[in-house]
Design a protein that fits this description.
This protein has a domain at 3-88: Stage V sporulation protein G (Arylsulfatase, C-terminal domain, 2-Layer Sandwich), CATH 3.30.1120.40. It is built from 3 helices and 6 strands, in the order E-E-E-E-E-E-H-H-H. The protein has helices at residues 65-87, 95-100, 110-120; strands at residues 3-10, 16-24, 28-38, 41-45, 48-50, 56-58.
Length: 129
Amino acid sequence: MEVTEIRVFLADEERLKAYVTVTFNDCFVVRDLKVINGNGGLFVAMPSKKKKDGTYKDIAHPINSDFRNYLEKKILDKYNDEYKMIEAGFPIKKVADYENDVVNPIASNPMQQAAYREHEAGLAPEFKK
C-alpha cells in the first residue's frame, strides 16, 4: 500500500499541532489523523471514536509496526515541510480549511513546492510566492 497524498492542516494548540488526511493508492482516504506534541516529541495519533465509557478506540490504524513507522515518517515529513513553508511566508492550510476540506492551492501546488525545494537547496535564484 502506497501513500499517494498527505494533506496537513495546522492547528495552533499546545499539544495538537495538525490534523492530517491521508490518501492511499489514489483510491482510499483516511481523515482525522493528528500530529501531537507529546512528552517524547511529535507523534501521529490515529483517528479514534469516544466510547460510552469515556475511553477512545482507534477506528483506522496500521496493523504492523513497519507500516506504522512508514506512515508516521511520511506524515511527520509532510508536517515539517508545511511548517517550513510557514517560516518562508507561504499561506498555509489551517483547521478551518480542514473542517471545510479545502485544499490551499499554493501549499498543495506541486510546481510551487518544487520551486520552493529548489530555492531551499540554493538551486533557484528567486522564489516567488
